[in-house]
Protein 1
Amino acid sequence: MSGIEEVTGQEVENVQVGGALLKVKRAFVAKSGGRFKNSVETVSLDVDIPTVFTASPNGPDLFSEAVVKLIDAHIPAGMTPANLKVGVKFESEELVESVGLSFKKLANVLPRDIADCMEDMAQSNKNLLELEEPRITIHITYLNTPTGSGEEASNKGGEVATPAKKEPDQ
């Protein structure tokens, strides 16, 4: 069985932040299967960046807020936000390499993180808001981390199982 269980496309949507409108042209969802079913889901969004983001001095902040709203809007059904970790990758044909945010707890993903990522990007690449064709793909990967202590309960009365110590070879 492949790692991808389902891929779907969705209608166009718009995300409005402070009067600016980020236009999502296409959305695709890839759900993991097998052992990782309901644990990993990637949402890929083809986005047009309007000139209000590229021309405004507040553009990076507005864009960052819009991306965080997209992250929050696409939380997969059945995944608990308290357990989620999120990674974000930005792609464009004009960018030499993909850039983004490494995985972190959903509650810790802030607009400032996106803005900082864009500043770092400008040092070695084009800034997302300086593209000749203001179109990007945003890949948002959600990891539904397991809950619990990570310790295994034994079959005898629910006590915590302790691994046996190895004796050193002599």
Protein 2
Amino acid sequence: MSIINVDDEFSSYEEVEEKIQQLQDTEKFKLWKRDSRTIAAAIKRMPKRVFNPEVKYNELLYCCVYGGRETKDELRSMRQRCPYQIKFRCTQDGQRLRVVSITPNHNHGPAETSDMDTGGEIKVPDQTAVSPSPSQSEAIENEEEEEEALTSTSSDVNIEDIVDSPMSDQLAMSNASDGFTDLQPLRLVSNMSFKHPKLKIILDVDTGIDDSHAIMLALAHHNVEIVAITCANGNVNVDLVVENTLRVLKACGREDIPVYRGAECSLLGNTSQFENFSGEAWNTPVDTSVVQKEHAANAIIRIINNYPGEVTVVALAPLTNLALAMRLDSTVGRKIKDLYIMGGNVEARGRVSPCAEFNFYNDPEAAQVVLKEFINITILPYEVCRKFLLPWDFFDIWTNAGTPASEFLRRSVLESAKPARVAGREGYRSCDGYCMALVLDRSVVHSAEPVYATVELSGQLTRGQMVVDWDGLLGQPCNALVVKELDVGKIQALFMLMVRPTTLQLQQLGLFSNSVPQCPMQTLWNNTDGPVVPQGCFDSTILFDPNNNSGIVNNASR
């Protein structure tokens, strides 16, 4: 046992400081508080959440003095890129600070870490000694204000934020989800400049049409690493879920992503399917021998234990696989980075029953387990997805972009979308695609509220309904953040990532040389006139103007 271990809890910030000092004295290395997020800032965004004032911080990150951000000029001369760090996060009830992850290894010798008696001066072999600057600690204490200033974005979406000139510029979104508890928006920046390593994601799916959109969007984002796709019974039976998932990966040229077969039925043994597939994309043959032999629940446990505090789970299916993982290892729910759920409802508006959304209705017991035992939960309810639709004019552009991904979209979605269009619905919705969009860019969310949420298990007409205690009448601490409003314009911009050509596709067409595409965009898309931009769609003139020679951006080679 070390002095500080994962899952250790502290009732005050002073206790944390004492342990950190004890660790430094014992192990003979020095730490610095690289990041902090105060509870005062958290309360501004989550006024209903109650915190113990003694903990002072909602999040803390300590690093070795030889590691941390490269942007800290005061420490640049001594940087060794040491990976050692300890991350603390406030517990769900707001009363304690918990150690959520430890990266325990240094990349330098003992002589370099014996700085305890240097009077604040840090000596590094073969480098100039430097003293920590007062501006460093001041910057750390003002971390919240700094991050808000850096990450503020406009609600207006301009495609120039997505596609830049010259042609060699690339799209990037920094900070792919740093925890969604504070609703901090992410920035759109160019040239693939990322503040953090790639976001590790487990996608738990019952692949139907909108699940495929979520998968394609995650694959298209350069700062996302899909570590696993786990399959569960839901829209269709689990074997067809596996096949559909493989079809999507094949269409995207990403058959290297590991796919795991999971739950065949709910925790109580019930099975039900909802979606009827139509469209030629879902009839193509696939090689199921590539499916991993490990059960999905075991894979979830293994991956989360291998990367504690680093894995974001995006749950787009009934929550059976996650509940099974909890029953096999009761610690995994507290080791995740974040959990995003597309499911549940807040207005008692059902989809397969009068009062219940499909994913929760399919396995209410699993939903109850997950809401009760996982941390850092964000829920995108079904009714919210109903309210925010993608205009049909955007839909036509999205499904007719002329790239392989767009062709797959067209063949997979047109038949299923036709009834809604004929019936006069104002637009198209992709619930699971929306959920992935807010994982990638939190500014997609216009408003959200922390609440206590549970699931009705016994009602004759209400079984599977998500019950939200909006006014705190049950006296329970908040356990989930419920999304209430979305920015459709930003979702449209994100969805266009799905249909961009990859570097490999550009090279195969002879349109990419020395990292610079060599042709106008409409030439690549085999459309001499260029797609027509309808009125009322997001500002996409730079992307779709047939007279624009800026070309297609490079989506880094996969």
Protein 3
Amino acid sequence: MSIRKNLFIQHACMYTREGIKSTLSRLSCGNIDLTVIAEKKYLEISDYLALPGTDVDVFILGLQNTYDSYGNTLDFIIKWLPLHYPQAKVIIMAQTLILGRLKDYLSGLNNVSAVLDNAITINELSHYLQDTILNLPDVRQKSKSTTPLTHQEIKVLKYLLKGMPTLQVARTMQIHPKTVSAHKRAAMIKLGITSLHSLIQCQVNLNMMDNLLTQK
């Protein structure tokens, strides 16, 4: 049976994009026909608008350590793709050490097949690409689906990660301190962490929370 797939590639690093295309070229043989329909350095809103009507099966997206990149990419994955390409698969490439436990949150999203480190080897990348393209069931890095964080949970986490005491968070959000604690516990359960220390790795995680909040 012949397999034909169209792919959209976005990554800031030219060498990474070339490596992905080279890997796809090696996988595209015999009854597998892989076509890169678009290649972008950055993901812009104009790219979204140009896509509807174009057949895309797999999106390979680079999540860069900048505020704008997180905003555009998360908006694209969480809101835009499920609406316009509900069947498409997404592979995210990022510095997973910086993402920390937020990697689990992203990999649990329904349309995300894998969250890979930028330093992944060509052989590993080839494995994930092949699994995604062939729709093999073991491509996901975790079987448990993500339960989306609520608006209030994200807001509480963002304030707490910025060092704001619980009482101040309660006053700012005009809710009871016990409600703040309840939102914190619920969010940590969804993220699979036992303390906020797991998220306090760098400013990038605060940017992630800011941008998750804008998706609500």
